[in-house]
Write a structure and sequence with these properties.
Blueprint: E1 2-5, H1 11-23, E2 27-32, E3 37-42, H2 49-54, E4 59-63, E5 83-85, E6 88-90, E7 96-100, H3 107-120, E8 124-126, H4 144-157, E9 160-164, H5 171-177, E10 180-183, H6 191-198, E11 203-207, H7 214-226, E12 232-236, H8 253-261, E13 266-268, H9 270-274, H10 280-289, E14 294-298, H11 316-332
Parallel strand pairs: 7-8, 7-14, 8-9, 9-10, 10-11, 11-12, 12-13, 13-14
Antiparallel strand pairs: 1-3, 1-4, 2-3, 5-6
The chain binds phosphoenolpyruvate (PEP) and manganese (II) ion.
Phosphoenolpyruvate binds at residues 102, 128, 132, 184-186, 207, 237, 272.
């Protein structure tokens, strides 16, 4: 249920209603709107809960939340959410561009990538230190050493760091170094991991599972939000279909659907979504045109020799060209792409 407070409700009345919600055995999430403050009351409700809350001081209305996800829904928060972590601002009219290698491989590779993507206009650096690989014999990532290199790259360029966490055991360690915790497609329904990142004070980039529906993605986001972490970005990275010409099938209509259903920012991953470097620039540009709030793009100094996902990684020149195109489209659709100041 949503407790909609009157426009002139006082801080004491809001506080009082939060206590009332909790006394009724529900979890209270306070969402400050531009006009109203609303309190999302989440949990098993009893018959008399609605009537009881309606009587509260400063309450304008108590309405049910129809969507299966609650805090993630537009019903609870009609205005888009903007997330800010370090150099990365994303959502509500600001485009965030996360770029960098699939995996952190060496200091040289990472620093070169960080400098190049920043120069081209990226606002955050990606790079996997813990890699979820399909084969146990593939490169699994540099782990803690990789995290240290990412922190050094942030030091050098000022770019916020986005990196994956694959296990609940590693959440604290990864959070020590990262600005944004990436939950990968393979872990989208690892509910204990979602709860663990929900308890962290780092923002989360939640990638859609390759076989997950939109509602499953939104319910996965709800696990994180329900633990009190409001900074969740959703990422469409392609789904598995019968088509074999692309690694996955990238549905850009997800942007429109998600914007209708949720206030959370939507990021498109044209790299995993296509699996071919030559398709990435067009899909990145198309994503911006479709209204995406952000992009996550794999970029490597030497894609041919990358330890993972080289075939879908852009080299520095191609990324620069892509950014140039994205910038023009962003302007046409009234999106701001902030420049990251030098450190
Ligand atoms: C990645 O971003 O490198 C990655 C492993 O992505 P996904 O979880 O979408 O496969
Ligand atoms: Mn990858």
């Amino acid at each position: 249920m949503i407790v909609v407070m009157a426009t002139n409700a006082t801080a004491e009345q809001i506080e009082h209603m939060v206590e009332r919600v909790e006394q009724l055995g529900l979890k209270a999430h306070v969402i400050q709107g531009t006009e109203h403050t609303v309190i999302a009351a989440i949990g098993e409700k009893r018959e008399e809960t609605k009537e009881s809350l309606e009587m509260g001081p400063g309450v304008s209305a108590v309405v049910p939340i129809l969507a299966p996800y609650k805090v993630a829904s537009r019903e609870v928060k009609p205005t888009p959410t903007q997330i800010q972590c370090g150099s990365l601002t994303i959502g509500a009219g600001t485009l965030g561009v996360i770029a960098g290698p699939c995996s952190v491989e060496s200091e040289e590779q990472l620093i070169a990538s960080a400098r190049a993507v920043k120069a081209a206009g990226a606002t955050a650096l990606r790079g996997g230190a813990f890699k979820p690989r399909t084969s146990p014999y593939s490169f699994q990532g540099m782990k803690k050493e990789g995290l240290k290199l990412l922190a050094a790259a942030r030091e050098e360029t000022g770019l916020a760091i986005v990196t994956e966490v694959v296990s609940t055991d590693d959440v604290d360690l990864v959070a020590e170094y990262a600005d944004v915790l990436q939950v990968g497609a393979r872990n989208m329904q690892n509910y204990r991991l979602l709860e663990a990142v929900g308890k962290s004070d780092r923002a989360v980039l939640l990638k859609r599972g390759a076989s997950a529906t939109m509602d499953e993605l939104l319910l996965a986001a709800e696990y994180i939000l329900n633990e009190g972490n409001p900074n969740v970005m959703l990422c469409e990275r392609g789904i598995r279909t019968f088509e074999s010409h692309t690694r996955f099938t990238l549905p850009l209509a997800s942007v429109s659907y998600l914007h209708r259903k949720t206030h959370l920012p939507v990021v498109i991953d044209p790299s995993h979504g296509t699996g071919h470097a030559y398709m990435v620039p067009d899909m990145a540009v198309a994503a911006v045109a479709a209204g995406a709030d952000g992009l996550i793009v794999e970029v490597h100094p030497d894609p041919e020799n990358a330890l993972s996902d080289g075939y879908q990684s852009l080299n520095f020149d191609l990324f620069e060209e892509t950014m140039e195109r994205c910038r023009r489209v962003a302007e046409a659709v009234d999106m701001t792409l902030p420049a990251v100041s030098s450190t």
